[in-house]
Design goal:
Length: 319
Amino acid sequence: MRRPSALLDMRNDFVRQMLIEMERDPAIVLLTGDLGFRAFEPIRERFPDRFMNVGIAEANMVGVAAGLALTGYKPFVYSIASFASMRCYEQIRTDVCYHGLDVKIVAAGGGFNYAHQGVTHHTVEDLACMRVLPGMRVLCPGYSWEATEATRALSVSPGPAYLRLGKSPNVPYDEGRFTFQIGKGYVIRDGADGVLCVTGNVIDLALAVSDRLALAGVSLAVASFPTIKPLDESLLAAFAARVPALYTLEEHSTIGGLGGAVGEWLAESGVQGMRFRRFGFPDRFITDVGSRDYLLACAGLDPARIAAAILSDRSSSSV
């Protein structure tokens, strides 16, 4: 059953789970950079002493969170993804990661989820920025259940982490088949001719690509990787042992995100003869104005073009 559109925002899933975790653990606090209106009110009302709006001062917010962590609190800090990842990058690196502090960076609206706000609000590089930080775990849930489970897992797992949230697509499969673990992926749809590894809220796009290829007689598996760092190398190895092609799909630059992580693993794994291709944002700013779907199409991320590229790869490899 399709949920009402108001419930398709991972932010709401995050808030609902945070209420549960803050009730369970009095050390958890939430800081926001003047965001979360019409979402964080239940937290502010239930836990007024553990909710802080520090204003539009992201770098200061991370510094405050680091100080709180040093005194035994477990801070979650929340801002728009482009600001949470870059405006306070030095503080995340030096104040949080260098000291291995228990601070969670929660980034809302990754990719083109703030499409109409322009390039300043587009987030094309955050996963790459966060992956390179020592000790930083990077989570990018793909839909409502993953967002809820990622919030639950991070609340009981100490140390730095980055959680990217977006809109939750209406994905047609039963999450009850899976058990969420940080660092683990899982197979959404199996296939014998290749696997499309996906992170973030483009699972619906991946399934549409698989459906198109099925009409052409190609059996493409789809696997979700809600954690990019640490990467589930065992799942990649299992696919590499039985399919001839690995593909990645993400609402992020093809440089440094899931595609980069899988490509690095593939280059060092010793796997021979594997076709590999990354689908994501090109190495340029998308300055067009329009909806998220429109901007994804401008970046080349639509089912028809992705499916055609995979078919072209198959044809080239058979020549």
